[in-house]
């Protein structure tokens, strides 16, 4: 039956509920600027009503706990966008370094090619000029040096990117271990009925850091978060973390190996690690292949044009460049076969060769003649500049676009999980008034008790 005791109990429950709401709101305000903090709310439910004869009477409020306000779907989208944006940033940083090897002006492969053919054209005016012949040798040496230095410049970043791979894998392992430890603590607090919000926030921060390193998928449960890579390779299962490792392949590049000894390098497509691997394993090899192809085909074609003429001594033309028979490694290995200016096969006849320039046209024609690739040396060198520029611009555009999208998602998340000082201030007033009202009820009931006790005393 409804009584003063039950009313007092209801008022006491209300005081406890409002006191907890005041505490939680105060904590929200205190952490309004804390990175990774998720707004908390008190979960209240109506207590089971009492049956008083034919009447059903309310029986107060239950405190069901404190929870953090999270949108897990939105969090997953943010993790994916974070991985993609981090990948684009990694590509921009690496490609900006490589782009310096292919300047659009100043000393470059294209300008060295142009200078070489210009020196050959000058030789056609006076094929017996020692100075002009020496100029051809010097410009040829400059061209060879350009091939060599660009090849070395592409190999250098690849070595540096291997260091990044090693560092990223190490960080992934450390963060996975942290997540597993937090899972264990979360399960313990769950079993004790404690507020798991702070642990959830810490897990979210760790997962956000993991997302900057590689593509991950997170599944939430009462046993903690399960974290796997994009290929399904487990990083965290409950309180157990699984380490990744690296091994060096035949080309000297680090490969990422999971705990089952499987090579998962090709499945890592985003995050800083994914972007780094994209540049190292796809973009640099593509540029190096184009450079090697140009060096090999140009040198081979020029040597063939040399063989069609005669040198200043009337001998059949010999190779001006030394280049491997295979395309791979040609840019690094190309060098001058001779530094003798008389070896330039400018003449088309063996007799009177010293002043004949009949073969110079064959030599200079290579500037615009199609090589086996279908393009001239000039166009191929220009395409390399365009290729690196396009890769860099695409990565930069993607990074900017993804950052804008990520900012929008974070703002959306902030509107759900973030703390609004205005809203919390309004809540404080509401909770204060409710607390004061509950206290007033208790005071009133106490007064009624005193009256009742006084009535009993007066009749005794």
List the helices and strands and how they pair.
Blueprint: H1 4-30, E1 40-46, E2 50-52, E3 55-57, E4 61-68, H2 72-99, H3 109-125, H4 130-191, H5 197-213, E5 216-221, E6 224-229, E7 234-237, E8 240-241, E9 245-248, E10 254-257, H6 271-307, E11 321-322, H7 330-333, E12 335-336, H8 360-364, H9 377-417, H10 421-459
Antiparallel strand pairs: 1-4, 2-3, 5-6, 6-7, 7-8, 9-10, 11-12
Helix pairs in contact: 1-10, 2-5, 2-6, 2-9, 3-4, 3-9, 4-5, 4-6, 5-6, 6-9
Plain-language structure description:
The protein has ten helices and twelve strands. The chain is of the alpha+beta class. The protein folds into two domains: 4-69 and 419-446, no CATH class; 76-407, no CATH class. The chain has a four-stranded antiparallel sheet, covered by helices on one side. Strands 1-4 form a two-stranded antiparallel ribbon. Strands 2-3 form a two-stranded antiparallel ribbon. Helix 4 runs antiparallel to helix 6. The mean pLDDT is 89.
Task: Name the descriptors.
alpha+beta; 4-stranded antiparallel beta sheet; two-stranded antiparallel sheet; rod-shaped
The counted number of beta strands is: 12
Taking all residues together, what is the mean pLDDT?
Answer: 89
How are the strands ordered across the major sheet?
A: 5-6-7-8
Helix segment tally? 10
User: How many structural domains does the protein architecture include?
Assistant: 2
Fraction of residues in β-strands: 5-15%
- The end-to-end distance, rounded to whole angstroms, is 26 Å
Order of helices and strands: HEEEEHHHHEEEEEEHEHEHHH
Biggest sheet features: 4 strands, antiparallel
Helix content range: 55-70%
Low-confidence stretches: none
Helix-strand makeup class? alpha+beta
Shape: rod-shaped
Radius of gyration: 38 Å
């Amino acid at each position: 039956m409804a009584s003063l005791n039950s009313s007092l109990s209801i008022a006491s429950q209300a005081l406890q509920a409002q006191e907890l709401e005041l505490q939680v709101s105060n904590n929200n305000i205190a952490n309004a600027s804390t990175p990774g903090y998720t707004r908390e709310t008190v979960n209240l439910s109506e207590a089971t009503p009492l049956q008083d004869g034919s009447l059903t009477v309310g029986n107060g409020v239950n405190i069901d706990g404190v929870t953090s306000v999270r949108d897990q779907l939105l969090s997953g989208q943010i993790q994916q966008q974070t991985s993609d944006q981090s990948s684009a940033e990694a590509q921009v940083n690496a490609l900006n370094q490589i782009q310096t090897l292919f300047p659009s002006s100043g000393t470059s492969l294209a300008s060295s090619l142009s200078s070489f053919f210009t020196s050959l054209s000058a030789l056609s005016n006076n094929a017996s000029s020692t100075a002009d012949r020496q100029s051809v040798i010097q410009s040829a040496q400059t061209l060879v040096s350009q091939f060599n230095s660009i090849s070395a410049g592409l190999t250098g970043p690849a070595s540096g990117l291997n260091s990044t791979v090693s560092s990223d894998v190490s960080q992934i392992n450390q963060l996975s271990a942290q997540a597993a430890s937090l899972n264990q603590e979360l399960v313990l607090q769950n079993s004790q009925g404690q507020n798991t919000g702070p642990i959830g926030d810490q897990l979210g921060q760790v997962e956000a850091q993991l997302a900057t390193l590689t593509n991950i998928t997170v599944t939430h449960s009462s046993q903690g978060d399960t974290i796997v890579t994009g290929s399904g390779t487990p990083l965290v299962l409950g309180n157990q973390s699984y380490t990744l490792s690296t091994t060096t392949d035949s080309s000297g590049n680090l490969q990422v190996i999971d705990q089952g000894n499987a090579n998962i390098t090709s499945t890592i497509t985003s995050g800083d690690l994914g972007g780094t691997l994209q540049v190292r394993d796809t973009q640099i090899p593509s540029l190096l292949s184009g450079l090697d192809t140009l060096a090999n085909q140009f040198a081979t074609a020029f040597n063939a044009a040399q063989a069609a003429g005669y040198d200043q001594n009337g001998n059949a033309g010999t190779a001006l460049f030394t280049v491997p028979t295979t395309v791979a490694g040609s840019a690094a290995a190309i060098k001058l076969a001779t530094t003798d200016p008389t070896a330039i096969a400018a003449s088309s006849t063996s007799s009177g060769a010293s002043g004949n320039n009949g073969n110079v046209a064959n030599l200079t024609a290579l500037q615009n003649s199609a090589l086996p690739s279908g393009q001239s040396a000039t166009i191929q060198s220009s395409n390399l500049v365009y290729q690196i520029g396009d890769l860099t611009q695409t990565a930069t555009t993607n990074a900017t676009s993804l950052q804008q999208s990520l900012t929008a998602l974070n703002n959306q998340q902030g509107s759900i999980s973030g703390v609004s000082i205005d809203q919390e201030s309004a809540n404080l007033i509401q909770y204060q008034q409710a607390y004061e009202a509950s206290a007033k009820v208790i005071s009133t009931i106490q007064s009624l008790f005193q009256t009742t006790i006084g009535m009993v005393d007066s009749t005794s």
